Amino acid sequence: MSARNDALRDALRRAASALRAEGPDFALAGSYALWAFGGPEPVHDVDFVVAEEDTEAAATTLEGAGFRIERTPEDWLFKACVGEDFVIDVLHALNGVPVTPDDVKHAEEYDVLAIRMRVLEPTRVVTEKLRSLNEHNCDYSALLSPIRAVRESVDWDEVRQASADNPFAEAFLVLTDRLGITG
After folding, report:
1. Where are the domains of the chain?
2. What are phi and psi of 174, to 5 degrees?
3. CATH architecture of the domain covering 1-120
4. What's the pTM value of the predicted model, to 2 decimals?
5. What is the pLDDT of residues 9-36, one digit of tens each?
6. Could you tell me the end-to-end alpha-carbon distance of the chain, in angstroms, rounded to an integer?
7. DSSP 3-state assignment of 56?
């Protein structure tokens, strides 16, 4: 394991511990959620989701835990930073749809790095990753390894239905079908 992975894991632990202690409710999302289900460990950042109405409470909690809060031009997340490179992205909307308290509460609890936390299920994470594909964000190679690793935990019919309006997602699913990943 690299020093970068150590630092990301430490940031994940610190943020999850602070949010568990002080609130609000949250769920691990993105590539680290897939990692919790057996996917490869990410090296870029950690993603959490909170209900849209809990955004400011989450920022306050993480700032109190020593994270530097950065507001982004995107209106669906903020960044909680440790040092210059290690980032927790806290999302309160996924692909333009606000995260609700029920979205967070429906995520099941797991032990991740010895901390009990909610984790978005692989079907939801894969769906959101595919729904985010577009002309400017269409790196199928970054998706293949994590999706291959969690393929047996994914409800592919649900993914297909939820991403049917996205031609980039449809093309990716044709590729994964032909590769025998989703077929």
Report:
1. 1-120, 122-183
2. -65, -45
3. 2-Layer Sandwich (3.30)
4. 0.95
5. 999 999 999 999 999 999 999 999 999 9
6. 33
7. helix
